[in-house]
Amino acid sequence: MSRATRMQRVLRGHLSLARICNSPTVISNVLVGVVLAGKFWPDLRVGLVMLAMLCFYCAGMYLNGLMDYASDCRERPERPLPSGLITRASAMNVMLLLFGAGSFLLLLSGGIPFLCGVLLSILMVCYNRWHKQHSLSPLLMGLCRGMIYLSTFLACATQYQTRDLWQVLVASTLLVCYVTSLTAIAKTERRITVPTSIVIITLFMPLLYIITRLSWSTLWLLPLAAGFVGWNWYSISLVYRRPRRLVGRAVEQLIAGISLVDALILAVSGSMVGGAIALLAFGLTLCLQRYVRGA
Questions:
Q1: CA distance 52 to 232
Q2: Which has the closest alpha carbon to 94: 53, 131, 59?
Q3: Is a pLDDT exceeding 80 seen at residue 71?
Q4: Is the pLDDT confidence value at 173 over 70?
Q5: Averaged pLDDT for residues 220-246
Q6: Contacting residues for 120 by C-beta, under 8 A, at least 6 apart
Q7: Nearest CA to 39 among 269, 281, 264, 282?
Q8: For residue 159, what is the DSSP state?
Q9: Which of 243, 198, 278, 234 shows the shortest CA–CA distance to 26?
Q10: pLDDT the model gives residue 193
């Protein structure tokens, strides 16, 4: 094997380990926090927060690979770490570098965003430590995503009222519900059981953001809501498919659907440009997942 080929394989291994294909969903998450903070055009601070969240996301994926090493050796030996394509020492160094870079970038945005980054890191560690043993671990994953909304909001809002904070907390809660549900679905991949009705219902909770704000002037949002429902329904159908369930594919599609949640919230918040970017992020995620596995 030539040196160039080896380097290409290692690079692809790092991209796979970082789940880089799902990174557009992180960008659309940040856009929601930006818009809810009252900013409709990006500036330097928005760029710093976006880079920070991408660093945290990729760091969390490296952490997942490191902490799942033993089980992956048994169940997924083809993955970058078990296969030996990437050494654990190398993955550890990249993970620490990403966590450090993300923390530094948030520190440049202020003390409160930095503390949010610390909390996000703790949630990531807790999830990866207990996700195979604890039934409530999907909630920790959901909280990790919800923290992106909150961290971005606190980093970008120069001043805000209680109503503004309440709005971002509601949006964060709905995102937490969605991600918790898709994570619970992912946990059924190697089990005989299928997701419960509560898990499925929770997946559609973001619709409440539109339903509670529906009026004659917002009826144009219904096609977007219908698209969200249709995509979720199609993805869930793969989980119940017989004779061969396609849980992994369903989870990848639902991860891409995170950007649809963002598009709903952005559109309701009055940001047509943000909603359009979120839809582009959805499509880009699906496209990238064709080359790098998203789950």
A1: 29
A2: 59
A3: no
A4: yes
A5: 86
A6: 56, 144, 147, 148, 151
A7: 269
A8: S
A9: 278
A10: 67
- Return d(Cα 50, Cα 222) in angstroms, integer: 29
Per DSSP, 216 falls in state G
Q: Over pLDDT 70: what percentage of the chain?
A: 95
Q: At what angle do helices 111-130 and 137-156 cross, to 10 degrees?
A: 170
Give the C-alpha separation, 125 to 100, whole Å.
Answer: 15
Q: Which of 118, 95, 94 is nearest to 106 (CA)?
A: 118
Name, in order, each residue with C-beta under 8 angstroms of 235's C-beta and a sequence gap of 6 or more: 250, 253, 254, 257
**CB count, 10 Å around CB of 125?**
15
pLDDT at 41 over 80: no
Domains defined along the chain, listed by start: 17-288 (1.10.357.140)
Dist. CA 257–CA 140, nearest whole Å: 19
Shortest CA distance to 60 belongs to which of 32, 31, 95, 85?
95
CA angle 258, 25, 162 (to 5 degrees): 75
Name the burial class of residue 215, with classes exposed (0-12), middle (13-18) and buried (19+) by CB atoms within 10 angstroms of its CB. exposed
- Supply the DSSP symbol for 83: T
